[in-house]
Amino acid sequence: MSDTNAVDVVDLDFSYAKLHGLDPVPVLEGVNLTLARGSRCLIIGANGAGKSTLLQILAGKRLTRSSAKVLGAEVFFNTPKGVTYLGTEWATNPVVRSDLEVSHFLDSVGGYRYKERRDKLLDILDVDLSWHMHQVSDGERRRVQIVSGLMAPWDLLLLDEVTVDLDVLVRSRLLDWLREETETRQATIVYATHIFDGIDSWPTHLSHIQLGSTLPPSPLAWPLSPADAESLLPESVRVRMDDPNRRGSKLLEVALHWLVEDRKKRVEKEIADLGREKRGAQEANISSEAFYRKYDYSH
Questions:
Q1: CA-based Rg of the chain, rounded to a whole angstrom?
Q2: What integer pLDDT is reported at residue 270 of this predicted model?
Q3: A Pfam family for this UniProt protein (predicted)?
């Protein structure tokens, strides 16, 4: 196994292309993420912070002017073998909602080549090979996606919210297997999720994305050292983390604190730019009565 880092991202910027004479829309600015092989990194941030865009860049799906290296290669122009990306868009593909038997589907994507790993995943994810894709639930369809995506051995796995549809038992068994993959094969995982309970011992690192930028240090080693906890978290959060009667896991307490701070920063920016907060109920909105007066229902 090469000593090359699994992920090398330094001061990454990304903007959506300029359209209709409008200025490009910045999505990521100054993103940093360097991960050694064998790492398991959680990407934490609010909806719209840029987590999915970062994962798509690491998968070679988006071109950037900044350097983004994966397994030692510039990922867009020379995406190396062994990079697997699983995102939520798979579930909307009409093909995977057709009358297609799971056994035939898995064979069509190469399941016969990886029989041992395929069968292990079928057991972990509790998949019935006789299911028909148009008849199963979203959670069951997601299980099939994960089996199909993870059968072939991978060196870097990029997960974008794909465990959200899984029940607690299946999710726990999958995460245990993923940990084993990183420990036995030195594979690496970057995982964006909003579900933090029950995984305190799973990640080796955290990366906090706020308004499109990673906050230093990125990545942050987990569990936190006493020095990191004291320098990065207010006393109130540290007290809750040490409280055996806390409402959730230590990781959840950290994530909640970060998300509260993210919202404050977003509101501050909106007020500075627009003079008001953009989201939520707005005083300028017209009442429902005034809205419906605009329409003539007499005809």
A1: 22
A2: 92
A3: ABC_tran
Distance CA 95, CA 181 (A): 30
Q: Which residues of the chain have pLDDT under 50?
A: 1
Q: To 5 degrees, how large is the angle CA 254–CA 85–CA 57?
A: 80
Distance between CA 156 and CA 291 in Å, rounded?
52
For the whole model, what pTM was predicted? Answer: 0.90
Q: Residues near 45 by Cβ (< 8 Å), separated by ≥ 6?
A: 51, 192, 208, 209, 210, 258, 259, 262
Pairing of strands 213-214, 68-70: unpaired
Q: Are 43 and 55 in contact (CB under 8 A)?
A: yes
CATH architecture classification, 1-82+156-273: 3-Layer(aba) Sandwich (3.40)
CB 25 within 8 A of CB 53: no
Amino acid 284: pLDDT:
58
pLDDT of residue 67: 82
- Domain locations along the chain: 1-82+156-273, 91-153
- The three-state DSSP-derived secondary structure of the chain is CCCCCCEEEEEEEEEECCCCCCCCEEEEEEEEEEECCCCEEEEECCCCCCHHHHHHHHCCCCCCCCCEEECCEECCCCCCCCEEEECHHHHHCHHHHCCCEHHHHHHHCCHHHHHHHHHHHHHHCCCCCCCECCCCCHHHHHHHHHHHHHCCCCCEEEEECCCCCCCHHHHHHHHHHHHHHHHHHCCEEEEECCCCCCCCCCCCEEEEEECCEECCCCCEECCCCHHHHHHHCCHHHHHHHHCCCCCCCHHHHHHHHHHHHHHHHHHHHHHHHHCCCCCCCCCCCCCHHHHHHCCCCCC
